[in-house]
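Q: Could you predict the 3D structure of Glutamate--cysteine ligase?
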Amino acid sequence: MGSEIAKTEFSEEDFRQFHQNLRKETRILMEWFSSDLFDKQQEMCGFELEAWLVDQHCTPTARNEEFLQRVNNPLVVPELSKYNFELNIAPHPLDSHLPEFLDKELRKLWNICIVNARDMGCNTLMIGIPPTLQDRMLTLQNISSLQRFHALNREILRSRSRHPLKIHIEGTRDSLEVVHHDVMAEAATTSLQIHFQVPMSKAASVYNIAHVLSAPMVALTANSPFLFGRELWDETRIPLFEQAVKTPAFVDLSGRVVSRVTFGRDYVRESLKEVFLENLDGFPALLPVTFDQDFNQLNHLRLHNGTIWRWNRPLIGFGEDGRPHLRIEHRVPPAGPSIPDIVANILFFYGAILHLQPEVPQAAISFEQARSNFYDAARFGLDARVNWSSGNALPVATLLLQQLIPGAILALAERGFDSHDLRYYLGDILARRVATRRNGAWWQKTFIKRHGPDFRAMTQAYLENQSRNIPVHEWSI
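A: Sure. Here are the predicted structure tokens for Glutamate--cysteine ligase:
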């Protein structure tokens, strides 16, 4: 959850002081890595889920301030636009109780949101990009009122010398080209962000494996095939987010320009400290807010890290006892389509990480292959082909069905997960989704093929199916 800031306009002195403080805190963090001060307890799991408010016509409605006041829950918070809100689930150990906990807590919080939205004459929607969203809706008139969002918009534009943000996405069937003079197009990209807290001894490996897994994860979960009425990528969220806040930061050793929304530059070699050193030296400050608190809270470092949107992002957090810990935030999956689908996606991510850890897949899959796999899978979804450890390209569906889903099941079973939960979430939901090729992107595209470009009707049908709490491969069309 992002924190509010006290000011929205900054001087050269603010930037100088912030960078000085950031350098101090980075030195402190490097000492923590050297002495391994991080929490060594069991792995912890959590997630954030972004969602939409839509009116009775299934059109996004900019009413999150009233909605959040009604909900009045610290786990439900604003997002960039007034159309959006975010749910946060408390962390839970990676143990046999996790499936029940995820399902129970998400249903409970989601039902609170549904009831309060209905009292306003609205509905809540979990989806990557709402099909009824129109470009004209994404203006500063509909930015959330928190100062950090206004400051972020101003500073991103300043860093671009106020050059407009050009969004160009080529799909198989359609293409889209629009220009924005603010960052509001980013509000269209609603995601599921999976968190995995691990000890320092495992953090580098988990971070690298998360990159390798990004391609099968985005293919498995794709749920954003339409933007402004155009059929583009199966997970259009990926290129849209990268272009909606595009701010080139530095050029890597291969000559590629690295921006603030990025798949990254390379695997880490030894530890996550390499990423935080890259943050310090490679990415200029966007929000130079200075804090008076103890530098050991790493407020400047964590704020700076929060303005660099890697698809797999390392995070520093603190437990109730004040001890720091390391988390990996996997930002690849979109929101939706249903609660059972979301729980299945989360469990698969953890299980696949555990399955791949002993194999060190990055030794067999180069970072460039992992990057190429990711964008191909975002474009083509479950029809994509990926390069894997054999060195040969294979269908991502085959990889999922023959290696990753069975491997995730075995890895979680070794951790004591109940066989019924594993059979239901990873077998009945995920394996069936892959075998039938029926993820959210498939459902949306098939609806339009059958019924024509009636995006309101499609969103209504999507909402009705979502409310039935059944996985997307079982949805009616």
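Q: Anything worth pointing out?
A: Residues 1 and 48 are 8 Å apart (CA to CA).
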